[in-house]
Automatic annotation (TrEMBL):
It holds the Pfam family PASTA. GO terms for molecular function: carboxypeptidase activity; penicillin binding. It is found in: Membrane. GO terms for biological process: cell wall organization. The chain crosses the membrane at residues 12-34. Its main location: membrane. The keyword Transmembrane helix applies. CDD domains: PASTA_Pbp2x-like_2 (cd06575). The keyword Hydrolase applies. This is Transpeptidase family protein.
């Protein structure tokens, strides 16, 4: 620089200064950018890097199990294999010019393995998504075929196919309790019944799993699940008893077939606690195959359907009047010999009479007698009495779609004819569950309980989370009135009462029949061809263990009365349930379990046990089929109706014909009763009606 011209040296220094300044400025920009990236925006870039190298999986917990009161499974989740596809991984490394050919080849191979249309598989591959379901709930053979596609010993092994366990809801008892339990859709959400009502408890809480992933997006390291309880939903224990539920559904289905009814409902409850032991609805369906079921069959008629109760409401009309002291239990009421006009409407009785006591009004189901009691009570007090028994309001059961029923027109009171009609069950509507809970109030001493369907809820480890206790809503009537009504209702099932078909040998039964005309939608008037037959009662009458309501919609099998259609269903369900609960008839001595075990050691255990139970049942209710009951002496040309109770159709008809009678059969199964009854002396050739019922 010393040997250079001063001007040239100065110019060189200037250029070097400019260059150093530019380099310093560039370095400053780099340092500033590095500071902004690493310090100011460092957390954002760190989060981005973590998201790129980590994979998050949302873990859906296993859906909880629904059990009956004894721990028998009613609905459970099982793991079934499903096949998914990562199309990006499947096509990785293939040149663009070969993609169409490879997609077709891969689509054909996958379609053959899973028995799917090739076009559908090709379309899913062409979309090139990281996740798509190929087929859900595959068989073991299809699983093996998919695994074979990924074996590396072949020329073109397929990548990106995943076999994943997926929860599937399974109902081990098939149709049992279908309308009550409901079903779960493929996305894991409850859609109907208790599956919908308890969806929040059964599904549990979803959790998230984080971990590292490789270049293919596969999880190679998991950080674990913070909440282990997220792996399973809550388990629900119902108050339903599987054995009683099975009997209720079986007897209801048999009655529907016998009488060609369009629908039916049965509710069995424990009057001391309000627990629902059975809730049967027919026709039913199999929740495992809900997609092919008729939507009408998926409806829980016990809770959703409302109907005019007919004469069963007389229990609560008369009970309200007795509680209000507007009528004396010993009063004798003039029943107009079967016809009474109110507001240009004539009310009829099927059993015309002059004077009837309150008990006779119930046992003979007098519309006129009940109407006079209700008119003496007054429409407002009758309405309030119905409300105290829970009519016109929901019961509080945790079930979707519960109907409130219809108690009276909105905004106006009843006129006289409406008061009279409401007292014997016309112009109002109730549900089977409402009717059951109202009868529970009579059976337990006057307390209206809230129905209990959920006994307890536990977590996946069995820890108790909640337990339902009996809850009294209000006092419907006093204990004295309830006891009085119980004794009156026993007369319905004895002697000349309308519900003698509900009588259970060895037990006093309290109940009431109902036969209600249905309204023709075309005319808006009551029809003479369509009816609702019902029976509600409890047993034993002195210490009630069971309250049972039976409703059959539009029975057409030759008879439609509640006493002949619904009452026998009550009897058969009651007989089985009492035996199942260990309640023995009066005068019988139950055999000890040790004695049954000793008898069962001889020969085949199942056969020996069956013989023991058969002998015990025969000792309580001996079979009298074919026995002729002595009565008045016969004259020439007369014959006596033989007692053929329990005989099948063919044998009963043959025996009646041999006795010189002309038999007419109604129903199927075994003979339950005859009209005229056994022992009656008739002229030879007279017609005798034989009523058959399916064996319980």
């Amino acid at each position: 620089m010393k040997n250079l011209d001063p001007k040239r040296a100065r110019w060189i220094r200037i250029r070097m200064g400019i260059l150093c300044g530019m380099m310093g400025l560039g370095l400053g920009v780099i340092v500033s950018g590095a500071h902004r990236i690493q310090v100011e925006d460092g957390q954002d870039w760190y989060d981005l890097a973590e998201r790129q190298r980590q994979r998050r999986l949302h873990v859906t917990p296993k859906r909880g199990t629904i059990y009956d009161r004894n721990g028998a499974s009613l609905a459970e989740s099982v793991e079934v294999p499903s096949v998914s596809l990562d199309a990006v991984e499947l096509l990785r490394g293939i040149e663009d010019r070969y993609l169409p050919m490879r997609i077709q080849q891969y689509g054909e191979r996958i379609a053959q393995a899973l028995n799917l249309p090739q076009e559908e598989v090709v379309d899913k591959i062409s979309r090139r998504r990281r996740f798509v379901w190929l087929k859900r709930r595959v068989s073991e053979a299809e699983v093996a075929a998919v695994r074979a596609l990924g074996e590396k010993n072949q020329r073109y092994p397929l990548r990106g196919l995943q076999i994943e366990g997926e929860g599937h809801r399974f109902y081990p008892n098939r149709e049992l309790g279908g309308p009550l339990i409901g079903f779960v859709s493929p996305d894991g959400e409850g859609r109907e019944g208790l599956e919908l009502a308890l969806d929040h408890e059964l599904r549990g809480k979803s959790s998230e799993v984080r971990g590292l992933r490789d270049r293919s997006g596969r999880l190679i390291f998991s950080e674990g699940i913070e909440d282990e309880a997220a792996l399973a939903g809550h388990n629900v224990y119902l108050t339903i008893d599987k054995g009683i539920q099975f009997t209720a559904e079986r007897e209801l289905e048999a009655a529907m077939k016998t009488y060609e009814a369009t629908g039916g409902a049965v509710v069995v409850a424990d009057p001391s606690s309000g627990e629902i032991l059975a809730m049967a609805s027919a026709p039913g369906y199999n929740p495992n195959d809900y997609s092919v079921a008729d939507p009408d069959a998926r409806r829980n008629r016990c809770v959703v359907d409302r109907f005019e109760p007919g004469s069963t409401i007389k229990i609560f009309s008369i009970g309200t009047a007795l509680a209000a002291r507007s009528v004396s239990p010993t009063a004798s009421i003039y029943c107009e010999e079967g016809n009474m006009a109110i507001d240009n409407v004539v009310i009829h009785d099927t059993h015309p009479a002059k004077f009837l006591s309150v008990t006779q009004i119930l046992s003979l189901s007098s519309n006129i007698g009940t109407s006079k009691i209700a008119l003496g009570l007054g429409e407002q007090r009758l309405y309030e009495g119905f409300r105290r028994f829970g009519f016109g309001d929901t019961t509080g059961i945790p079930f979707p779609g519960e109907s409130m029923g219809v108690l009276r027109p909105r905004g106006r009171p009843w006129v006289s004819v409406e008061t009279a009609a409401a007292s014997f069950g016309q112009g109002i509507s109730v549900t089977t569950l409402q009717l059951t809970m109202a009868m529970v109030a009579i059976a337990n001493g006057g307390k209206l309980l809230e129905p209990v369907l959920i006994k307890r809820v536990t977590d996946g480890g069995g820890t108790m989370l909640s337990e339902t206790q009996p809850r009294v809503r209000r006092e419907a009537v006093s204990a004295t009135v309830a006891k009085m009504m119980s004794e009156m209702l026993v007369a319905v099932t004895e002697g000349e009462g309308t519900g003698v078909e509900a009588a259970i040998p060895g037990f006093r039964v309290a109940g009431k029949t109902g036969t209600a005309q249905k309204i023709d939608p075309a005319t808006g008037r009551y029809t003479d061809t369509h009816y609702v037959a019902s029976f509600v009662g409890f047993v034993p009458a002195d210490k009630p263990r069971l309250v049972i309501s039976v409703v059959l919609d539009e029975p057409l099998g030759g008879t439609y009365g509640g006493g002949s259609v619904a009452a026998p269903v009550f009897r058969r369900i009651g007989e089985m349930a009492l035996r199942y609960l260990g309640v023995t008839p009066r005068g019988s001595v139950p055999m000890k379990l040790s004695e049954v075990s000793e008898r069962a050691k001889v020969g085949d255990p199942a056969t020996s046990t069956y013989q023991v139970l058969t002998e015990a049942r025969a000792a309580v209710a001996p079979i009298t089929a074919g026995v002729v009951t002595p009565s008045a002496p016969m004259k020439s040309g007369e014959t006596r109706v033989p007692d053929l109770t329990g005989q099948p159709v063919r044998e009963a008809i043959r025996a009646a014909s041999a006795a010189g009678l002309s038999p007419t059969a109604f129903g199927t199964g075994r003979l339950s009763r005859a009209e005229p009854p056994a022992g009656t002396v008739l002229p030879k050739g007279s017609t005798v009606k034989l009523f058959f019922e399916p064996s319980s």
